[in-house]
Each structure stands twice: as structure tokens, then as C-alpha cells.
């Protein structure tokens, strides 16, 4: 099924971030996390940086992405830097964006900026106060719009479809790897895998993040699927356990205990309930 989901107005997201800068008493912020950059301007490449002040926003990348950003990046200015984004930081341009303000307070994403890059910035940004900040963009991302919820729902729909297709292939002799490949092939018809697909059978099911391997399924196996599709930047994450043939009685008791715990948690879930109480 082909579904058209409208893109978010990126200028609105950037404006919300600029309002946060005022509340946090910051004159600007350097956005380094690629997921945060994608959220703010739509960029999906592997090298980029955003500088947002209270009145302006600029996205920077290198020459490899000059064609890509023409169609992807929205809501802000976009510029190509000839050298490394951090070792040759556009200091003069930032000063102009800040109107020559003395000792500006500039936020940096402490969870997305390496120590080496932080030191590069500190050497170049003389007269600036670099303020480590956490979750400033994440606070915006926590509240989902209708179009974001639609993307998340579509990612889950694709994940469930892939799982149901894989179930038809579950039989003695097929490998975990074969099933994982079938799942990821289906994901790539509509999006991409959100993470490496886990198909773990038999003793491999005891490993929390097992790699799908060459083990062949056999009767009586418990098979755990931990899979998810990423659709237009939004991810699903689904875990299901199935049995090939009649399960061992002890495995069945464990399965039913986990199922009961899940159902009780779902029954207690409502707005305002702390996650730790559900756990």
C-alpha cells in the first residue's frame, strides 16, 4: 500500500528550538547529532552540522552532499565547507549571526559531541562561553505530531507484515540467517532496517542481542524475532517468540508467565503512571 504522509514544516521546528534558546539563556547552539539534524532540517547524510541562533539557522556539510542537500534540507540556510566542519569552524560567520555580541553563550550537545571536537571548538571560539546541554532537541522530539505518529504507525505496519511473511518460512532446516534476510529484504522495499534483525533459535534465544547465524531450526525450538523497520526516519521495534512444533513444557510455562506479566503491565498503563511501576 502506498501512503503519502506530509512532511513537517521544518521552520516551525527550528522556531521552537529558538524559543528554547531564549528560555535556557543561550545565544545559539551547535547541533552535532545526526538524528537531531534530520529532525530539524531533513538531512539524511552522514556528515553535517547545524548552527542555530535566536534569529538564524544554518546547515553545514562538505562537497560530497552538495546535490543531496538541494532537495533534502529545508527551513534554513545551507552551506558547503571545504574543510572539516569542526577543525575549520565558521567562526566569523557565527559572530555575524550573533550581531557581534560580546561573550555569547553557545550551547553544544554534550551527548553528541566527541571530546576531540569539543577541544577543536574551544580553541577556535575565543571569547565564547561553550555550555554543554542535554536533550534540548530531544525535548522537541518527544512530542509527536500527527504526521510523525502516522510514520511510526506505518513503520510498525511494515514490521508486522515482514514478520507474518517470515512465519510462513519457519520450518525445520531453515537457518536464522535466511529468515533475517527475508525480513530485511521486505523492509528495504518500503524503508530500511531500524537495526540488525535478530532471529535467535534454541540456545541462541538466551542471548539478549544474538546475531542471526547459520544455526538451522529444528522441531521444538523457541524462535525469538527482534525486528523493526525505519520508515522516513521513524522506527518500529517489535519482539515476538514463536515455537516450531510442540514446545517443551518448561518453555511453555516461561512463555505464559512472560505473557501474563505483559498483559498486566498493559492493563496498568495510562497517562501519568511512572514506567518503573510498570516494570
Structure overview:
The mean pLDDT is 94. The chain has ten helices and twelve strands. 40% of the residues lie in helices and 18% in strands. The protein has helices spanning 10-23, 34-41, 68-72, 91-97, 115-124, 136-141, 146-167, 176-190, 249-268, 275-278; strands spanning 28-31, 49-53, 57-61, 77-80, 105-109, 129-133, 192-193, 198-201, 222-227, 229-231, 234-235, 238-243. It has two domains: 10-141, Creatine Amidinohydrolase, Chain A, domain 1, CATH 3.40.350.10; 146-247, Creatinase/methionine aminopeptidase superfamily (Creatine Amidinohydrolase, Alpha-Beta Complex). β2 and β3 form a beta hairpin. Residues 13-141 form the Creatinase N-terminal domain. It comes from candidate division WOR-3 bacterium. Pfam families: Creatinase_N (PF01321), Peptidase_M24 (PF00557). Keywords: Aminopeptidase, Hydrolase, Protease.
Amino acid at each position: 500500500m502506498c501512503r503519502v504522509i506530509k512532511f513537517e514544516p521544518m521552520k516551525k521546528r527550528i522556531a521552537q528550538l529558538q524559543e528554547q534558546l531564549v528560555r535556557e539563556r543561550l545565544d545559539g547552539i551547535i547541533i552535532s547529532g545526526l538524528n537531531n539534524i534530520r529532525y530539524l532540517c531533513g538531512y539524511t547524510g552522514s556528515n553535517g552540522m547545524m548552527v542555530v541562533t535566536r534569529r538564524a539557522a544554518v546547515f553545514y556539510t562538505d562537497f560530497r552532499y552538495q546535490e543531496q542537500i538541494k532537495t533534502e534540507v529545508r527551513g534554513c540556510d545551507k552551506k558547503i565547507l571545504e574543510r572539516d566542519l569542526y577543525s575549520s569552524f565558521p567562526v566569523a560567520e557565527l559572530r555575524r549571526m550573533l550581531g557581534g555580541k560580546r561573550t555569547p553563550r553557545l550551547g553544544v550537545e554534550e551527548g553528541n559531541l566527541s571530546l576531540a571536537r569539543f577541544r577543536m571548538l574551544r580553541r577556535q571560539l575565543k571569547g565564547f562561553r561553550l555550555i554543554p546541554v542535554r536533550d534540548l532537541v530531544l525535548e522537541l522530539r518527544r512530542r509527536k505530531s500527527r504526521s510523525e505518529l502516522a510514520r511510526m504507525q506505518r513503520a510498525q505496519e511494515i514490521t508486522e507484515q515482514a514478520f507474518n511473511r517470515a512465519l510462513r518460512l519457519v520450518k525445520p532446516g531453515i537457518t536464522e540467517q535466511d529468515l533475517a534476510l527475508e525480513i530485511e529484504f521486505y523492509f528495504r522495499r518500503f524503508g530500511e532496517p531500524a537495526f540488525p534483525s535478530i532471529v535467535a533459535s534454541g540456545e541462541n534465544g538466551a542471548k539478549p542481542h544474538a546475531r542471526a547465524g547459520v544455526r538451522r531450526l529444528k522441531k521444538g525450538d523457541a524462535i525469538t524475532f527482534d525486528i523493526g523497520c525505519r520508515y522516513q526516519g521513524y522506527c518500529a521495534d517489535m519482539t515476538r517468540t514463536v515455537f516450531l512444533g510442540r514446545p517443551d513444557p518448561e518453555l511453555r510455562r516461561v512463555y505464559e508467565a512472560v505473557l501474563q506479566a505483559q498483559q498486566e503491565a498493559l492493563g496498568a498503563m495510562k497517562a501519568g503512571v511512572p514506567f518503573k511501576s510498570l516494570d
